[in-house]
Specification:
alpha+beta, Porin, 7-stranded mixed sheet, 2 helices, 13 strands, 27% helix, 38% strand
Length: 252
């Protein structure tokens, strides 16, 4: 009798022992913090890219209290600097808020300046006029910045630029976004820009558009011309085919 009883109860005992061992192992694993799977932390948030900046209107008056420089534009600073918080060089896009900007400047016969100042920025445009050709251009840009996260104040100066070419008495316009490379650490992005630094007579003169705006107008012209040529080819082919069919019916 005893051998038979042991033979019948051994599978049940084995199953019970196995379940007990699994339960103990799971309990010890849950209690041991070193064996728990590490929690994956959330990835670092990437810098938020601002949208297009708000367009601001600025002007400069001369000694006679007459407007001598007009400008309407949205401005965005693209700067690289050493960040105290991250301990490395970072690149940041910053929009200028026209509601917070104070403008100033000066006008001379062959040079005009426009300075835009915020709490942490001071941006100065310098325009030069060639009195012989009556052409002007943006010849200089200076940026001074002091952000709280900067290890030291930021300064970028370039006085050999040749942007925004225009004619005396006319305004320069570029509605598209355009990046003006000033230094390796600073690029100025302009949006919906129209400026006239010389020959202002109350309001903007006739606009001379930048190449980006001209390209937008050129594409529809090219497409229209191509369609016109295609239609002309079809008409000519039809006329040639018609003449050949008539010639085929002539008697010899």
């Amino acid at each position: 009798m005893i051998p038979v009883i042991l033979k019948q109860n051994m599978p049940v005992t084995a199953i019970f022992s196995l379940l007990l061992a699994l339960n103990i192992d799971q309990t010890m694993t849950a209690a041991d913090p070193t064996s728990a799977a590490p929690k994956s932390g959330s990835p670092p948030s990437s810098p938020v890219t601002p949208g297009p900046p708000e367009r601001g209107s600025y002007n400069v008056t001369n000694a006679n209290d007459s407007v001598c420089l007009l400008a309407q534009m949205g401005l965005q600073l693209n700067i690289s600097y050493f960040s105290n918080s991250s301990g490395k060089v970072v690149q940041e896009l910053l929009n200028l808020d026209p509601n917070q900007v104070k403008s100033s400047g000066s006008c001379d016969p062959d040079q005009a300046t426009l300075s835009l100042a915020e709490d942490h920025f001071n941006l100065t445009f310098t325009f030069s006029l060639n009195s012989t050709s009556n052409k002007y251009h943006l010849s200089g840009l200076e940026l001074f910045a002091a952000l709280p996260d900067m290890s030291k104040s930021f300064e970028a100066v370039n006085t050999t630029l040749k942007f925004m070419l225009g004619t005396l008495g006319h305004s320069y316009m570029c509605q598209k976004e355009k990046a003006l490379s000033v230094t390796q650490e600073f690029t100025l992005n302009t949006f919906q820009l129209q400026v006239q630094p010389f020959g202002v007579n109350g309001d903007f003169g006739a606009a001379e558009e930048c190449e980006l705006d001209e390209d937008d107008m050129l594409i529809p012209i090219i497409v229209g011309a191509a369609l016109a040529v295609l239609v002309l080819i079809v008409i000519m082919a039809y006329l040639v085919g018609r003449n050949r069919s008539r010639a085929g019916y002539q008697t010899i």
